[in-house]
Amino acid sequence: MTLPTISIVCPCHNEQEVLHAFTDKIVGILSESTFTYEILFVNDGSTDDTLAVIRDLASNNSNIRLINLSRNFGKEAALTAGLDLAQGDVIIPIDADLQDPPELIHDFLLEWQKGYDVVVAKRVDRSSDTLAKKITANLFYRFHNTIADVEIPDNVGDFRLITRRVVSAIQLLPENQRFMKGIFSWVGFKTSVVEYSRQPRAAGESSFNGWRLWNFALEGITSFSTAPLRVWLYLGFFVSAISFLFGASIILKTMLFGVDIPGYASLLIIVLFFGGIQLIGLGVMGEYIGRLYMESKRRPVYIIEEDSADTKNDAGD
Ligand code: UDP
Ligand code: MG
Protein backbone atom coordinates (compact mmCIF):
# COMPACT_ATOMS: atom_id res chain seq x y z
CA MET A 1 0.00 0.00 0.00
CA THR A 2 1.36 3.44 -0.87
CA LEU A 3 1.54 6.00 1.89
CA PRO A 4 -0.84 8.96 1.76
CA THR A 5 0.73 12.12 0.38
CA ILE A 6 0.41 15.52 2.01
CA SER A 7 0.38 18.53 -0.31
CA ILE A 8 1.33 21.87 1.17
CA VAL A 9 0.03 24.76 -0.93
CA CYS A 10 1.72 28.05 -0.27
CA PRO A 11 0.82 31.20 -2.23
CA CYS A 12 3.75 33.62 -2.26
CA HIS A 13 3.77 37.28 -3.09
CA ASN A 14 7.01 39.08 -2.25
CA GLU A 15 8.10 36.63 0.42
CA GLN A 16 11.83 36.46 -0.26
CA GLU A 17 12.74 37.20 3.37
CA VAL A 18 10.74 34.41 4.94
CA LEU A 19 10.84 31.59 2.42
CA HIS A 20 14.03 29.95 3.68
CA ALA A 21 12.90 29.98 7.31
CA PHE A 22 9.45 28.78 6.28
CA THR A 23 10.82 25.95 4.17
CA ASP A 24 13.27 24.78 6.84
CA LYS A 25 10.51 24.66 9.38
CA ILE A 26 7.92 22.94 7.26
CA VAL A 27 10.32 20.40 5.77
CA GLY A 28 11.47 19.59 9.31
CA ILE A 29 7.92 18.96 10.41
CA LEU A 30 6.92 16.97 7.36
CA SER A 31 9.95 14.76 7.43
CA GLU A 32 9.08 13.76 11.01
CA SER A 33 5.73 12.43 9.85
CA THR A 34 5.38 9.03 8.28
CA PHE A 35 3.74 10.39 5.12
CA THR A 36 5.24 11.44 1.84
CA TYR A 37 4.84 15.09 1.02
CA GLU A 38 5.06 17.75 -1.68
CA ILE A 39 5.28 21.50 -1.23
CA LEU A 40 3.77 23.68 -3.93
CA PHE A 41 4.99 27.25 -3.90
CA VAL A 42 2.77 29.37 -6.09
CA ASN A 43 4.64 32.52 -7.02
CA ASP A 44 1.95 35.13 -7.50
CA GLY A 45 3.69 37.81 -9.55
CA SER A 46 6.27 38.75 -6.92
CA THR A 47 8.34 41.80 -7.73
CA ASP A 48 11.24 40.79 -5.48
CA ASP A 49 13.45 37.70 -5.65
CA THR A 50 10.79 35.25 -4.49
CA LEU A 51 10.88 33.39 -7.81
CA ALA A 52 14.63 32.86 -7.68
CA VAL A 53 14.42 31.75 -4.04
CA ILE A 54 11.72 29.19 -4.82
CA ARG A 55 13.61 27.97 -7.85
CA ASP A 56 16.64 27.44 -5.67
CA LEU A 57 14.60 25.64 -3.00
CA ALA A 58 13.00 23.41 -5.65
CA SER A 59 16.35 22.45 -7.13
CA ASN A 60 17.60 21.35 -3.71
CA ASN A 61 14.54 19.34 -2.69
CA SER A 62 12.66 17.19 -5.16
CA ASN A 63 9.52 17.42 -3.01
CA ILE A 64 9.28 21.14 -3.70
CA ARG A 65 7.41 22.28 -6.79
CA LEU A 66 7.41 25.77 -8.20
CA ILE A 67 4.32 27.10 -9.91
CA ASN A 68 4.96 30.50 -11.37
CA LEU A 69 1.90 32.50 -12.35
CA SER A 70 2.29 34.87 -15.29
CA ARG A 71 1.50 37.92 -13.12
CA ASN A 72 -0.07 38.83 -9.77
CA PHE A 73 -3.55 37.29 -9.75
CA GLY A 74 -4.23 37.70 -6.03
CA LYS A 75 -4.08 35.24 -3.17
CA GLU A 76 -7.39 33.58 -3.95
CA ALA A 77 -6.28 32.78 -7.49
CA ALA A 78 -2.85 31.60 -6.37
CA LEU A 79 -4.49 29.30 -3.84
CA THR A 80 -6.85 27.98 -6.49
CA ALA A 81 -3.90 27.22 -8.77
CA GLY A 82 -2.21 25.33 -5.96
CA LEU A 83 -5.32 23.31 -5.15
CA ASP A 84 -5.79 22.45 -8.82
CA LEU A 85 -2.24 21.18 -9.20
CA ALA A 86 -1.70 19.50 -5.84
CA GLN A 87 -1.66 15.73 -6.06
CA GLY A 88 -1.83 14.76 -2.41
CA ASP A 89 -4.51 12.84 -0.55
CA VAL A 90 -4.72 15.70 1.92
CA ILE A 91 -4.04 19.30 1.02
CA ILE A 92 -2.94 22.02 3.43
CA PRO A 93 -3.03 25.65 2.26
CA ILE A 94 -0.70 27.78 4.37
CA ASP A 95 0.70 31.33 4.25
CA ALA A 96 4.41 31.77 3.65
CA ASP A 97 4.94 34.33 6.40
CA LEU A 98 4.85 31.84 9.31
CA GLN A 99 1.69 33.45 10.66
CA ASP A 100 0.12 30.04 10.24
CA PRO A 101 2.25 27.87 12.57
CA PRO A 102 3.42 24.76 10.70
CA GLU A 103 3.48 22.86 14.04
CA LEU A 104 -0.29 22.68 13.77
CA ILE A 105 0.04 20.27 10.86
CA HIS A 106 0.58 17.46 13.39
CA ASP A 107 -2.78 18.24 14.99
CA PHE A 108 -4.40 18.51 11.56
CA LEU A 109 -3.18 15.03 10.65
CA LEU A 110 -4.41 13.57 13.95
CA GLU A 111 -7.87 14.99 13.36
CA TRP A 112 -7.86 13.77 9.78
CA GLN A 113 -7.01 10.26 10.99
CA LYS A 114 -10.08 10.45 13.22
CA GLY A 115 -12.13 10.73 10.04
CA TYR A 116 -12.60 14.45 9.44
CA ASP A 117 -12.47 15.74 5.88
CA VAL A 118 -11.79 19.30 6.94
CA VAL A 119 -9.67 20.50 9.85
CA VAL A 120 -9.67 24.27 10.29
CA ALA A 121 -7.32 26.35 12.40
CA LYS A 122 -9.09 28.89 14.58
CA ARG A 123 -7.19 31.90 15.90
CA VAL A 124 -7.98 32.33 19.56
CA ASP A 125 -5.58 35.21 19.93
CA ARG A 126 -5.46 38.02 17.41
CA SER A 127 -3.15 40.17 19.50
CA SER A 128 -0.77 40.39 16.55
CA ASP A 129 -3.44 42.33 14.64
CA THR A 130 -4.08 46.04 15.06
CA LEU A 131 -7.21 47.15 16.91
CA ALA A 132 -8.69 48.52 13.68
CA LYS A 133 -8.18 45.16 11.95
CA LYS A 134 -9.74 43.28 14.87
CA ILE A 135 -12.80 45.53 14.89
CA THR A 136 -13.31 45.49 11.13
CA ALA A 137 -12.76 41.74 10.91
CA ASN A 138 -15.31 41.19 13.65
CA LEU A 139 -17.83 43.47 11.92
CA PHE A 140 -17.26 41.71 8.64
CA TYR A 141 -17.88 38.24 10.07
CA ARG A 142 -21.00 39.40 11.91
CA PHE A 143 -22.44 41.15 8.86
CA HIS A 144 -21.50 38.40 6.43
CA ASN A 145 -22.89 35.63 8.59
CA THR A 146 -26.15 37.49 9.16
CA ILE A 147 -26.92 37.86 5.49
CA ALA A 148 -25.01 35.13 3.64
CA ASP A 149 -26.28 31.68 2.75
CA VAL A 150 -23.28 29.96 4.32
CA GLU A 151 -21.68 30.87 7.57
CA ILE A 152 -17.94 31.56 7.67
CA PRO A 153 -16.65 30.51 11.07
CA ASP A 154 -15.22 33.39 13.05
CA ASN A 155 -11.45 33.82 13.02
CA VAL A 156 -10.78 30.96 10.65
CA GLY A 157 -8.51 31.67 7.70
CA ASP A 158 -7.42 29.59 4.75
CA PHE A 159 -4.96 27.59 6.88
CA ARG A 160 -6.58 24.18 7.16
CA LEU A 161 -6.42 20.57 6.07
CA ILE A 162 -8.78 19.33 3.40
CA THR A 163 -8.99 15.90 1.85
CA ARG A 164 -8.91 15.09 -1.82
CA ARG A 165 -12.68 14.80 -2.01
CA VAL A 166 -13.10 18.29 -0.58
CA VAL A 167 -10.73 19.62 -3.24
CA SER A 168 -12.75 17.80 -5.90
CA ALA A 169 -15.88 19.46 -4.53
CA ILE A 170 -14.20 22.87 -4.60
CA GLN A 171 -13.26 22.28 -8.22
CA LEU A 172 -16.93 21.88 -9.06
CA LEU A 173 -17.49 25.56 -8.24
CA PRO A 174 -16.94 27.27 -11.58
CA GLU A 175 -16.90 30.92 -10.50
CA ASN A 176 -13.81 32.88 -11.35
CA GLN A 177 -14.18 35.43 -8.58
CA ARG A 178 -13.06 33.15 -5.84
CA PHE A 179 -13.62 34.09 -2.23
CA MET A 180 -11.95 31.01 -0.80
CA LYS A 181 -13.16 31.35 2.78
CA GLY A 182 -16.71 31.25 1.49
CA ILE A 183 -16.01 28.48 -0.99
CA PHE A 184 -14.44 26.32 1.73
CA SER A 185 -17.54 26.78 3.89
CA TRP A 186 -19.92 26.31 1.02
CA VAL A 187 -18.71 22.81 0.17
CA GLY A 188 -19.26 21.64 3.75
CA PHE A 189 -18.01 18.19 4.94
CA LYS A 190 -17.29 16.96 8.42
CA THR A 191 -15.17 19.61 10.07
CA SER A 192 -12.95 19.66 13.12
CA VAL A 193 -11.47 22.78 14.73
CA VAL A 194 -7.96 23.18 16.10
CA GLU A 195 -7.12 26.33 18.05
CA TYR A 196 -3.94 28.39 17.89
CA SER A 197 -2.67 31.85 18.57
CA ARG A 198 -1.67 33.95 15.60
CA GLN A 199 1.87 35.31 15.52
CA PRO A 200 2.97 38.47 13.77
CA ARG A 201 4.59 38.11 10.37
CA ALA A 202 8.09 36.61 10.61
CA ALA A 203 9.40 39.15 8.06
CA GLY A 204 8.23 41.15 5.08
CA GLU A 205 5.01 43.10 4.78
CA SER A 206 1.34 42.22 4.58
CA SER A 207 -0.10 42.60 1.09
CA PHE A 208 -3.49 43.50 2.47
CA ASN A 209 -3.96 47.17 3.29
CA GLY A 210 -7.25 48.79 4.24
CA TRP A 211 -8.55 49.33 0.71
CA ARG A 212 -7.68 45.80 -0.39
CA LEU A 213 -9.36 44.37 2.70
CA TRP A 214 -12.48 46.42 2.01
CA ASN A 215 -12.65 45.03 -1.52
CA PHE A 216 -12.00 41.57 -0.18
CA ALA A 217 -14.94 41.97 2.20
CA LEU A 218 -17.17 43.19 -0.66
CA GLU A 219 -16.11 40.15 -2.68
CA GLY A 220 -17.08 37.88 0.18
CA ILE A 221 -20.46 39.44 0.72
CA THR A 222 -21.45 39.70 -2.94
CA SER A 223 -20.22 36.15 -3.65
CA PHE A 224 -22.41 34.54 -1.05
CA SER A 225 -25.45 36.74 -0.59
CA THR A 226 -27.92 38.73 -2.62
CA ALA A 227 -29.38 40.38 0.47
CA PRO A 228 -27.76 43.77 -0.30
CA LEU A 229 -29.66 43.77 -3.60
CA ARG A 230 -32.97 42.73 -2.13
CA VAL A 231 -32.98 45.12 0.80
CA TRP A 232 -33.86 48.01 -1.57
CA LEU A 233 -37.24 46.50 -2.32
CA TYR A 234 -38.19 46.61 1.34
CA LEU A 235 -36.62 49.99 1.89
CA GLY A 236 -38.63 51.23 -1.10
CA PHE A 237 -41.85 49.89 0.38
CA PHE A 238 -41.03 51.46 3.71
CA VAL A 239 -40.22 54.86 2.22
CA SER A 240 -43.32 54.80 0.00
CA ALA A 241 -45.48 54.02 3.01
CA ILE A 242 -43.94 56.88 5.01
CA SER A 243 -44.34 59.37 2.14
CA PHE A 244 -47.93 58.27 1.70
CA LEU A 245 -48.66 58.93 5.37
CA PHE A 246 -46.75 62.20 5.22
CA GLY A 247 -48.72 63.28 2.12
CA ALA A 248 -52.00 62.42 3.82
CA SER A 249 -51.02 64.42 6.88
CA ILE A 250 -50.13 67.47 4.72
CA ILE A 251 -53.46 67.33 2.89
CA LEU A 252 -55.28 67.06 6.19
CA LYS A 253 -53.32 69.97 7.66
CA THR A 254 -53.97 72.16 4.60
CA MET A 255 -57.67 71.42 4.80
CA LEU A 256 -57.81 72.23 8.48
CA PHE A 257 -55.37 75.14 8.79
CA GLY A 258 -54.90 76.48 5.22
CA VAL A 259 -51.76 76.76 3.10
CA ASP A 260 -48.46 76.90 4.91
CA ILE A 261 -45.55 78.24 2.79
CA PRO A 262 -42.38 77.57 4.88
CA GLY A 263 -40.76 74.20 4.38
CA TYR A 264 -37.99 74.93 1.92
CA ALA A 265 -35.23 73.53 4.16
CA SER A 266 -37.06 70.34 4.99
CA LEU A 267 -37.84 69.86 1.29
CA LEU A 268 -34.22 70.24 0.34
CA ILE A 269 -33.08 67.82 3.03
CA ILE A 270 -35.59 65.24 1.95
CA VAL A 271 -34.59 65.58 -1.70
CA LEU A 272 -30.91 65.22 -0.84
CA PHE A 273 -31.56 62.34 1.53
CA PHE A 274 -33.46 60.31 -1.01
CA GLY A 275 -31.01 61.26 -3.75
CA GLY A 276 -28.30 59.75 -1.57
CA ILE A 277 -30.33 56.66 -0.74
CA GLN A 278 -31.03 56.07 -4.43
CA LEU A 279 -27.39 56.43 -5.35
CA ILE A 280 -26.40 53.91 -2.69
CA GLY A 281 -28.98 51.49 -4.06
CA LEU A 282 -27.67 52.03 -7.55
CA GLY A 283 -24.11 51.58 -6.31
CA VAL A 284 -24.97 48.25 -4.70
CA MET A 285 -26.55 47.16 -7.97
CA GLY A 286 -23.40 48.31 -9.71
CA GLU A 287 -21.29 46.06 -7.49
CA TYR A 288 -23.34 43.06 -8.53
CA ILE A 289 -23.64 43.99 -12.19
CA GLY A 290 -19.89 44.55 -12.40
CA ARG A 291 -19.29 41.11 -10.95
CA LEU A 292 -21.88 39.57 -13.23
CA TYR A 293 -20.07 41.17 -16.15
CA MET A 294 -16.65 39.93 -15.07
CA GLU A 295 -18.04 36.47 -14.38
CA SER A 296 -19.74 36.33 -17.79
CA LYS A 297 -16.39 36.67 -19.55
CA ARG A 298 -15.44 33.21 -18.26
CA ARG A 299 -11.79 34.13 -18.04
CA PRO A 300 -9.48 31.64 -16.38
CA VAL A 301 -8.72 32.32 -12.73
CA TYR A 302 -4.94 32.24 -13.27
CA ILE A 303 -2.34 31.64 -15.97
CA ILE A 304 0.69 29.47 -15.31
CA GLU A 305 3.92 30.59 -16.83
CA GLU A 306 6.11 27.85 -15.42
CA ASP A 307 5.61 24.63 -13.51
CA SER A 308 8.76 22.94 -12.25
CA ALA A 309 7.03 19.55 -12.52
CA ASP A 310 6.82 20.05 -16.30
CA THR A 311 10.40 21.19 -16.52
CA LYS A 312 11.52 18.12 -14.57
CA ASN A 313 9.52 15.85 -16.86
CA ASP A 314 10.89 17.51 -19.96
CA ALA A 315 14.41 16.99 -18.72
CA GLY A 316 13.70 13.28 -18.42
CA ASP A 317 12.39 12.96 -21.99
N1 UDP B 1 -0.36 36.51 -1.26
C1 UDP B 1 -0.45 36.13 -2.59
N2 UDP B 1 -0.87 37.04 -3.52
C2 UDP B 1 -1.20 38.32 -3.18
C3 UDP B 1 -1.15 38.67 -1.81
C4 UDP B 1 -0.73 37.76 -0.87
O1 UDP B 1 -0.15 34.99 -2.94
O2 UDP B 1 -1.55 39.08 -4.07
C5 UDP B 1 0.09 35.51 -0.25
C6 UDP B 1 1.22 35.99 0.66
O3 UDP B 1 2.49 35.74 0.09
C7 UDP B 1 1.00 35.16 1.91
C8 UDP B 1 -0.51 35.00 1.95
O4 UDP B 1 -0.98 35.26 0.62
O5 UDP B 1 1.59 33.87 1.81
C9 UDP B 1 -1.16 35.94 2.95
O6 UDP B 1 -0.80 37.26 2.65
P1 UDP B 1 -0.44 38.34 3.77
O7 UDP B 1 0.45 37.72 4.81
O8 UDP B 1 0.08 39.53 3.05
O9 UDP B 1 -1.86 38.64 4.38
P2 UDP B 1 -2.28 38.83 5.93
O10 UDP B 1 -1.66 37.70 6.70
O11 UDP B 1 -1.77 40.15 6.31
O12 UDP B 1 -3.77 38.76 5.89
MG1 MG C 1 0.24 37.19 6.74
Averaged pLDDT: 86
The ligands found in this model are: uridine-5'-diphosphate, magnesium ion
Distance between the termini: 28 Å
- Can you tell me the residue ranges where pLDDT is under 50 for at least 5 consecutive residues? none
Secondary-structure-derived class:
alpha/beta
CATH topology type of the largest domain: Spore Coat Polysaccharide Biosynthesis Protein SpsA, Chain A
Approximate helicity band: 40-55%
Please tell me how large the radius of gyration is.
25 Å
**How much β-strand is present in the residues?**
15-25%
Strand order of the largest sheet: 7-5-6-4-1-2-3-8
Largest sheet: 8 strands, mixed
**What CATH architecture of the largest domain would you give?**
Alpha-Beta Complex
Order of helices and strands: EHEHEHEHEHEHHEHHHEH
Q: Mind explaining what this structure looks like?
A:
- The protein is of the alpha/beta class.
- It has two domains: 5-212 and 300-316, Spore Coat Polysaccharide Biosynthesis Protein SpsA, Chain A (Alpha-Beta Complex), CATH 3.90.550; 227-297.
- It is built from eleven helices and eight strands.
- The chain has an eight-stranded mixed sheet with strand order 7-5-6-4-1-2-3-8, with helices on both faces.
- The longest helix is centred in the C-terminal third of the chain and has 33 residues, at 264-296.
- It is elongated, with a radius of gyration of 25 Å.
- The two termini are 28 Å apart.
Describe, in short, the structure shown.
This protein is an alpha/beta fold and 317 residues long. It has eleven helices and eight strands. The longest helix has 33 residues, at 264-296.
